[in-house]
Request: fold
Amino acid sequence: MTNPDDPRLLRLAEEDNVCAVRSAVPPGESIRIAGVEYPVAAEIPTGHKIAVRPIAAGAKVVKYGAPIGSATRAIQPGDYVHTHNLKSDYLPTYTRQSGGHHLD
Amino acid sequence: MNGYARPGGRKGIRNILVVAYLVECAHHVAREIALAYRQRGVHLIGFPGCFPNAYADRIMRQVTTHPNVGAVLLVSLGCESFDRGGLAETVAASGRLVHTVVIQASGGTTAAIAEGRNWVENALPSLAAALRGPIDLSELVVGVICGGSDATSGLTANPAVGRASDLLLEQGATVIFEETGELIGCEKFMAARAASAELGRRIIASVEKAARYYAAYGHGSFAPGNAEGGLTTIEEKSLGAYSKSGRSTICGLIQPGEVPPGGGLYLMDVVPDGEPRFGFPNIADNAEIVEMIASGAHVILFTTGRGSVVGSAISPVIKVCANPETWRRMGADMDVNAGRILDCAADLDEVGREIFDCVVRTSAGQPTRSEALGHQEFILTYK
Reply:
């Protein structure tokens, strides 16, 4: 029997709508999520997050079975999830590129 | 598993003689006494300050009467503020062998070292005769912490330790987790796991207190490197650390040095009440380990991504390595390879079971890597 999930997906809790990837997924590849192949548009680096369920704009993104913030736009399975589409419900996230400004 | 029966009912998994200096001025003499017996289960601990401090006093009383400790030699310069008489009485009242060397009374360095070594020579055979008896997992206290973390910590080692924690709790063991300053953003989720609504409110208050305390020192938990490693939000980072606690009910909030009343999962409130004083609450990983040992931890589960090498005086440290690259470089310092999860060679449940088995073996007497390498770190400061 084929595993319904690509072996690169690392699911921290059953109810999560994002998974981490065990190794980088290059753009153009497809990834199997719950038995369905989804195209990957943007490279997902090792340890970063990929959506495994549709997430509506404003809905909670769930990892470890708990909300890690809210989606800032609609997210589809196979989408890369990071600062461009997920924001903290607590504090702005600072990156070197943002120069200390809040990333919207 | 066979442990060491101690007066008062608690049981140990090691039979350590500790040499404890009560001020930095006595550190050298204490070290010279202890070093001669480092292969024979003698550990060096101590408190460096000369001014009295209720916290340090409480922690020293707790670690010198820890169930892994069978005998205690106190080393005092003589004029420091530490209540050496009170500490010696506490240790004696616990049924342990105790002696105090006062350097000023002994006649200086050489005489004090000779007196201390003479006492240790005589104490070691009685220590070896300590009563053995069965110890059950339900009598075990396990502390979980992380240090030298990287992006892999929250993906492999921490959630795997969480699974081990759940397995230990099923057997009736006690598990302690902490780092309230690194749990910012998951306090409401944590409160929902609390055994009562009142405990949930206290948990939220403890995290808010930690946030205020760290803010006063200009300490932010989320660094740019975190985002580069794939973490997007402070909640996500905190949950990665928090995942060490597993999914069981949180049944209490304890202070450092407070021994949990029974089996179950406890959060340690490491940040003192009131205005910030004395600097950061825990200045290094070993300061956190010492507090867990003071709260009775027999074993510490320590997750690391970048690669820590530390062990501890008194209680064995099991190091769970999160990062497969670190394992390849520093595997000789590690007990469990959770990085295999990223190599697709194991899943979280398998590694959780392996960690549980390692706790059982360690409790039955098998030395951890840091014990075999002679690590005996100990640090205690003002709080």
